[in-house]
Amino acid sequence: MVNSGVCGTLNLGSIPRGGTTTSWRTLKMSDRKKIKPTLGPGFRDLSGDFLYTKKRIIQIIEDNYQRYGYQEISQPSLEISSQIGSYLSEDQSNQMSDVFLFENEKESLMLRYDLTSQMTRYVASNYRDLPGTFKNYRMGNVWRQEKPSPNMRLREFFQADFDILGNSNQPQVDAEICNLIADIFTQIGFKKNQFKIGITNLKIIQGLISNNLKISDPKKIQQISRSIDKKSRLGLKSVKDLLGKGRTDSSGAYTKGCGLSEGQIDEIINFLKINDLKELKSVLKNPLSIEGIDELSKLLDQASYGDFLNFIELSMDIQRGLSYYSSFAVETNIQNLQIKDNKGKTIDMGGISCASGGRYSKLTSRFGVDLDGSGASIGVDRVAFIADQFKDKIFNQTQRPVVILVLDENFYPQYYEVLKILRNKNINSEIYPGNNFKLSKQFQYCDKNLSPVAVIIGQEEIEKNLIKFKVIQGEKDKNEFTTTKEKLVNEIQKFI
């Protein structure tokens, strides 16, 4: 029985079943309509070193999540849109403009655009069976209807989230989020001068806007916050333009400004230059800002008990793009790194956010359950992209396989014996899989697959009980070596 589903019916009559009619499958390639193999903007195929790097980073992240006491939950890619909603859209007239929607006669579904709002649905459904303080992590792809950009702003990307919901010691939990991010990034191989964990408390700026600037319109406040949040990427001048009349970027695209007065703009700009809590407290006297400052002070006290306080900095421009954050906010930005994209163009990664989050209040309340939470999300694709560019300095690649060349098909027993020796010592290895046994073709295979070593076993080697190997990557002088079967592993390990 053919299931029509939402994609329509399959017309079997259009496919010839036999007889004299020529079927599509038997048409000559030249007679078929050719399709150019392309991808939509913001989507990618992954392979090779990048994929190895990405998987290694995912493993480091997951190991640390578990080491810190978080348990995994897994959720579907599609959600009922009315259940999740949208917290991203800058277009107030179309709140779902940033999500991919799928509609049929019964319901409207959406591809998840983040993992946090989806997780709160799970917690609300199961909170009676969960511990009072629930530490969890989720990992997977998310999708957003955004304009792609060269700095790894994609429409599909992989996130690794961790959160703590329920009854918790707020300073301790928020400090742990900072410590965990720092732990992960240093294990990947980033140095202190290559990333910064910026923290703020949104109550501070909210107090400034509502009390000092006398602005109460929620939409206006959100617009101001989104403008301030662009400081690390665009700079103070652009923020000033966005707070005022607006800004035109290098592509000619215009962004409408907040329409603030010069005095209001100056007050915000001066505020953004402050990175000391005592100075903030002397400048901002309203109760809401003072509350946020005190909460930050307690967080830093907790962080001082760990090993990563020197990675944490105050950053008043952090506002977070998602509207559900209420107080503590964190954003990890790459610093002092320039990389080349696939076309060889140099991209300055300074200011690019790779891990962010914060504290949210009552995100589960729309499901009838009031729980506070705090957490963060690591943008794995961005981290992997940067690490892959600096694989010789930042991140050690997964070892590509040693290739045992096929000199004679009668020698397969010997090849498999060596293969077993290598694999038993956890050396990634394979026998040449092609059907063209010319040595030039086999070496070409090794080179294109970035194999470190090629093992050569011919008649002479078998007679003398020796094994020859050739170093494919890195060696400029002598690159051929002969050894015994017993010493093979130790000798090859020098080059992988």
Account of the 3D structure:
It is a single chain. This protein has 496 residues and is α+β, with helices and mostly antiparallel strands. The chain has two domains: 48-76 and 112-389, BirA Bifunctional Protein, domain 2, CATH 3.30.930.10; 402-493, Rossmann fold. It has 16 helices and 20 strands. An eight-stranded mixed sheet has the order 1-5-6-15-14-11-7-10. A five-stranded mixed sheet has the order 17-16-18-19-20. α4 crosses α11 (287-303). The longest helix has 20 residues, at 48-67. The protein is elongated, with a radius of gyration of 28 Å. The two termini are 54 Å apart.
Number of DSSP-assigned strands:
20
Would you state the CATH class of the largest domain? Alpha Beta
Lateral arrangement of strands in the main beta sheet? 1-5-6-15-14-11-7-10
- The helix-and-strand class reads alpha+beta
Name given to the CATH homologous superfamily of the largest domain:
Bira Bifunctional Protein, Domain 2
From the N-terminal CA to the C-terminal CA, the straight-line distance is: 54 Å
What CATH calls the topology of the largest domain is: BirA Bifunctional Protein, domain 2
The domain tally reads: 2
The CATH architecture classification of the largest domain is: 2-Layer Sandwich
Q: Which range best describes the helical content: under 10%, 10-25%, 25-40%, 40-55%, 55-70% or over 70%?
A: 25-40%
Return residue spans where pLDDT drops below 50 for at least 5 consecutive residues: 1-21
**Which of globular, elongated, flat, extended, rod-shaped describes the shape?**
elongated
Mean pLDDT: 83
- Please identify the oligomeric state: single chain
The number of helices is 16
Radius of gyration: 28 Å
User: In percent terms, what proportion of residues is strand?
Assistant: 15-25%
Major sheet characteristics: 8 strands, mixed
